[in-house]
Specification:
Blueprint (H helix, E strand, L loop, with lengths): L3 H11 L9 H12 L4 H11 L3 H10 L11 E6 L2 H5 L2 H12 L12 E6 L11 E3 L2 E3 L7 H6 L3
Parallel strand pairs: 1-2
Antiparallel strand pairs: 1-3, 3-4
This protein binds FE2/S2 (inorganic) cluster.
Length: 154
C-alpha cells in the first residue's frame, strides 16, 4: 500500500500535468525516495492509484535506469560505460572499483553499503571517466582516486 505521505507527494506533483498518466516517473521517484527501490507490489499499488496498467508502469520503470526494480545498497554507484569514458580509462577505473568493492556490475556489497551499476553517458565527456554516486557526479577518475571517493560514503 502506498503511504499517505507518498500519495500526498504524488498528488502534489500530479497538479503540474494535464493528464494523470504523465506523473508516472515522478510517482516512481517518490516511491523510490521513500523505500530505496520499487518492488512489484509498489508497481501494482501505483498502477491502481494512477489508473494506468501495471504493464505500462512496469515498462516505464524498467526503461528508466535510475529507477531500481531490485533492492539496492545504501549508496548506488553508476559508472559511465560510454565511448569517451572508454577512451579515457574506464577499464582501469572499473577494475579498481571491482577490486575495492568485491563485486561486478549488478552486484551489491555484502554489507549493503554499495550497489554497482553501469550507466550511459553522463554528459561530462570532457572530464571522463565519470561516475555518479547517489546523484553526486565524480569526474576525471583514475584508479588512484577511487579509495578516497568511496570513503565519503559510509
Ligand atoms: S562518455 Fe562518459 S561522460 Fe560521456
Amino acid at each position: 500500500m502506498l503511504t499517505a505521505e507518498e500519495i500526498g507527494e504524488i498528488e502534489h506533483e500530479a497538479k503540474n500535468y494535464p493528464v494523470r498518466s504523465a506523473v508516472t516517473i515522478d510517482a516512481l521517484q517518490i516511491v523510490q525516495r521513500h523505500r530505496g527501490w520499487v518492488s512489484d507490489e509498489a508497481i501494482q499499488d501505483l498502477a491502481n492509484h494512477l489508473g494506468v496498467s501495471k504493464a505500462d508502469l512496469d515498462s516505464v520503470a524498467s526503461f528508466y535506469n535510475l529507477i531500481y526494480r531490485h533492492r539496492v545498497g545504501r549508496h548506488v554507484i553508476h559508472l559511465c560505460d560510454s565511448v569517451s569514458c572508454w577512451v579515457m580509462g574506464y577499464r582501469q577505473v572499473r577494475e579498481e572499483l571491482e577490486k575495492q568493492l568485491g563485486i561486478d556490475f549488478g552486484g551489491t556489497t555484502a554489507d549493503s553499503r554499495f550497489t554497482f551499476l553501469p550507466v550511459v553517458c553522463l554528459g561530462c565527456c570532457d572530464h571522463a571517466p565519470a561516475m555518479l554516486i547517489d546523484g553526486d557526479l565524480h569526474t576525471d577518475l583514475s584508479p588512484g582516486s577511487i579509495a578516497n571517493t568511496l570513503e565519503r560514503y559510509l
